[in-house]
Design a protein that fits this description.
With 428 residues, this protein is an alpha/beta fold. It is built from 17 helices and 13 strands. The strands form 2 sheets. Strands 3-2-1-4-5-6-7-8 form an 8-stranded mixed beta sheet, sandwiched between helices. The protein has a 5-stranded parallel beta sheet with strand order 11-10-9-12-13, with helices on both faces. Helix 4 links the parallel strand 4 and strand 5. The radius of gyration is 25 Å and the shape is elongated. The structure holds nicotinamide-adenine-dinucleotide (NAD). Nicotinamide-adenine-dinucleotide binds next to helix 4.
Length: 428
């Protein structure tokens, strides 16, 4: 009942490939499925197509050891884990087309006794919807919504919580929420993950498990929005928000997060919309938090424009063409090179498109700008930008920027990350 000889992972991206490699490293036969032929070819050569520390070694060992192979067409297995994208459409409506395509593609190879797990971050009810798609495609098999504990196929929702950059470690050590459509589905899902997971298993049903993942990311989003709103209020009231938060956090039961130029990445900025979309009248705070965080880059851009105007007032011999702006940081969070959905990148790109003078981009985690950006922007060193920019905009708290004594740098500084406040505690 609980034996899994062959395991298939559908979608070999940032989540699916490390998961496939984790099973393979425990000497299970793993079939990785992806519609991207290029990714499949790279993996079958024992290489990887994404950036994640240590993953290359594990995939190489798994492929050369004969435990992992990739293909574009699903093959029979004892368990299927689906980790395909769940983006939203233009109107913030979730796009479940990838989940539906993945479910329908495995339906053909399902056999009695198989386990299907959805790992993609999903709106509440998606697992039940997936079970309906599977049942439509395979009327010869029974599913939990029809036969409960006696179903031929077991189905569960088990969200992924790993942090990019630490995936290999967190896959093993994180606690796992297990949302079976029945108790038996949960039992079998736990048995599957026990192959490599050392964290605790937290049993619930599929709807609560789906909601749990959305709640975790919405909670972070709301907390960041509070900090971002405070930063705007404090700016208006001439109060240093960084000092304010440090003071307030001395209260034993207060823990305010730090503000920034907005919220980026493909999780926190996306997942709360799945809740807003499902319950628009009820999810008022969650929607407002999204709007507050999404509007912060525009506020920063207005600040930069105002600063340029003030600079020109102080230097009447100059025109906007003579003003050099340096944007410090492009990534969506510190100490990584990931530019996806980055507010820092959006701000820099917008400034480069409206400012007639030079715009320098300072990003110590990359050697080259994406070609689209390179036309409008110059990638510049920290030192050159500190010495030559009239206006410096701090957008990301990379460790290299934390090392700078911003109070001693000449020219104007627009600080979205509290570096100036930190600088006062530096000796030099
Ligand atoms: N990346 C993260 O840090 C993270 C963390 C937690 C949860 N998630 C969630 O996990 C899911 C996957 O995210 P990701 O970052 O791995 O995405 P990704 O884009 O890196 O990978 C998804 C892969 O699925 C493949 N694919 C698409 N449709 C397919 C189909 N029908 N059959 C087979 N393969 C298909 C794509 O080609 C791609 O390689 C999303 O729902 C995401 O929200 C991601």
């Amino acid at each position: 009942m609980f034996k899994f000889e062959t395991i298939s992972v559908i979608g070999l991206g940032y989540i699916g490939l490390p998961t496939a490699a984790a099973f393979a490293s425990r000497r299970k036969k793993v079939i990785g499925v992806d519609i991207n032929q290029n990714a499949v070819d790279i993996i079958n050569r024992g290489e990887i197509h994404i950036v994640e520390p240590d993953l290359d070694m594990i995939v190489h060992a798994a492929v050369t050891g004969g435990y992992l192979h990739a293909t574009t067409k699903p093959e029979p297995a004892d368990a299927f884990l689906i980790a395909v994208p769940t983006p939203f459409k233009g109107n913030h409506e979730p796009d479940l087309a990838y989940v539906e395509a993945a479910a329908r593609s495995i339906a053909n190879v399902l056999k009695r006794g198989d386990l299907v797990i959805l790992e993609s971050t999903s709106p509440v009810g998606t697992t039940e919807q997936m079970a309906t798609w599977l049942a439509e495609s395979r009327p010869d098999l029974s599913f939990p919504q029809q036969a409960g504990q006696r179903a031929d196929i077991n189905i569960a929702y088990c969200p992924e919580r790993v942090l990019p950059g630490k995936v290999i470690q967190e896959l093993v050590t994180n606690d796992r929420v297990i949302g079976g459509m029945t108790d038996r589905c949960s039992d079998r899902a736990i048995a599957l993950y026990q192959i490599f997971v050392e964290g605790e298993f937290l049993r619930t049903n599929s709807r609560t498990a789906e909601m749990c993942k959305l709640t975790e990311n919405s909670s972070r989003d709301v907390s960041i929005a509070f900090a971002n709103e405070l930063s705007i209020i404090c700016d208006k009231l001439d109060i240093n928000v960084w000092e304010l938060i440090a003071l307030a956090n001395h209260h034993p039961r207060v823990n305010i997060l730090q503000p920034g130029p907005g919220v980026g990445g493909h999780c926190i900025a996306v997942d709360p919309w799945f809740l807003v979309n499902k319950t628009p009248d009820e999810a008022r705070l969650i929607r407002t938090a999204r709007e507050v965080n999404d509007s912060k880059p525009k506020w920063v851009i207005e600040k930069i424009k105002l600063d340029v105007a003030e600079f020109l007032q102080e230097n009447p011999e100059k025109t906007a063409k003579d003003v050099t702006i340096a944007c410090f940081g492009l990534a969506f969070k510190p100490d990584i090179d990931d530019l996806r959905e980055s507010p820092a990148l959006a701000i820099t790109r917008q400034i480069a498109s409206i400012h007639p003078g030079r715009v320098l981009a300072v990003e110590p985690n990359t050697d080259m700008l994406p070609s689209k950006l390179a036309q409008h922007l110059t990638l510049s060193s920290i030192e050159y930008s500190l010495n030559n920019a009239d206006i410096k905009v701090i957008l990301v708290d990379h460790k290299e920027f934390k090392a700078i004594n911003w109070r001693q740098s000449k020219g104007r500084v627009i600080d979205t990350k509290g570096m100036l406040f930190l600088s006062q505690f530096k000796n030099t």
